[in-house]
Amino acid sequence: MMYRRLALATAATAMLLGGTAVPAAAQPPAAEVSATAEIPSVIEVTPANYQQLMEWSHTKPVVLDFTASWCYWCQKQKPYLQQYNTADNGSWVWAKVDVDRNRDLSRTYGVRGIPALLNIQDGKEAGSRLVGFDGPTSLRTWLNHL
Known about the structure:
By secondary structure, the chain is α/β, with parallel strands linked by helices. The chain is built from five helices and five strands; from the N terminus they run αβαβαβαββα.
């Protein structure tokens, strides 16, 4: 983007001074970025970024993690989610939803107990939920089925 602005400014200056503009062929090609390269593997969900998160769910699975800082089992599950997300090279988005800050979202999904993990694909809930923390093995099994 910055190069484009510089090229436009240079071309405008050259035209004002009676010279010629830089030909388009002299400009470097725009870098192609894959859609998944822009998607983070971990995100804190807010009302402001929720719609973007739903867009990302069309590209790769999103795990909505309904959690709270005061929730004992949420805190026990957290390091395993981090470990598995890292081990899976960000093939799924770990979307942390603080239930105290996102009460509307918790109501929208009907979350009544935490920790609660929801599999979101193509903008909607897909597959089963994992409610509670029954240990790392059951968590890994659930994540393998995303």
